[in-house]
C-alpha cells in the first residue's frame, strides 16, 4: 500500500497525547536541524529525551545510546536518521511504550511504515514536527 500521511485530526491528537519525545539522532550542535527542532518542541512544553550514542547530553537532558536504553516512558519517537535506518528503528520502537513514530522531512520507508501500522502506531513520515506543531496547534 505504501505510506499515507494521516489526516490533520490524527496529527493534532498525537501532538496532544504527547508529553515526552525521544529524539533519535539529536545533535548537541546548535546549528543542526535536529537541535533546532527539539529546542522548539522543548520550548513548547514537551520533554525531550535525546537518543544518540555520540553525545552525553543535549538541551539539559541525559542522552541515551538507543531507544531501548531509555528507562522512562515516552509517547513519541522523532527520527533524524536517514530513511534506510527506519526498518531497524521501527523494530526498536515496537519494544517501547510509545505509539507515535515521526520521521522528519525527507525521511520515509514503506517497510517501516507497514511494520509500525501492524503494531498500532500512529505514523508520520517525511513531515517536519516543528512545522506541523506550529500550523496545527495554534
TrEMBL record:
InterPro entries linked to this entry: CoA-bd, NAD(P)-bd_dom_sf
Domain (CoA-binding) ranges: 15-107
Pfam family, one: CoA_binding_2
PANTHER family for this protein: COA-BINDING DOMAIN-CONTAINING PROTEIN (PTHR33303:SF2), CYTOPLASMIC PROTEIN-RELATED (PTHR33303)
Entry protein name: CoA-binding protein
Organism the protein comes from: Thalassobacillus devorans
